[in-house]
Design goal:
By secondary structure, this protein is mainly α. The chain has a domain of 77 residues. Helix content is 66%, strand content 10%. Strand 1 and strand 2 form a beta hairpin. The longest helix has 26 residues.
Length: 122
């Protein structure tokens, strides 16, 4: 599964595959899908029925965690598509301009497609 986003006015190709999960685990020491599930669990436990968080602190914590995980996933997908992508820290430092909401959507779609393939292998 492939996608594309714009970072610093340049197109960046993304590729989601089982290799992406390995790259993520090697770089961050955690499983990509476990991080996504934990984030969703945090949201469910700390949000009220209309989706608003019980406190501003919880909303800020969720936003921080979500952006951090999204950037990590985005980097793993970019690294899967292009092995020459720099380390996560350098890559993140180079970002000056990004349409985050579009990148988040593209990564979400790729993640959904990747998990469907992963389930087929069970």
């Amino acid at each position: 599964m492939f996608g594309e986003i714009k970072i610093n006015e340049k197109s960046v190709k993304l590729k989601a595959s089982l290799l992406s999960q390995l790259i993520y685990k090697q770089a961050f020491g955690k499983d990509m899908l476990v991080d996504v599930i934990a984030l969703d669990e945090y949201r469910k436990e700390n949000a009220e029925s209309e989706g608003k968080f019980k406190s501003n602190t919880m909303a800020m914590e969720y936003s921080y965690m979500a952006k951090n995980i999204t950037y990590q996933i985005m980097w793993a997908f970019a690294k899967t598509a292009d092995e020459n992508i720099t380390s996560f820290e350098n890559w993140l430092d180079e970002i000056e301009d990004i349409d985050y909401s579009n990148a988040e959507k593209v990564c979400g779609n790729l993640l959904d497609a990747m998990t469907k393939i992963d389930r087929k292998n069970e």
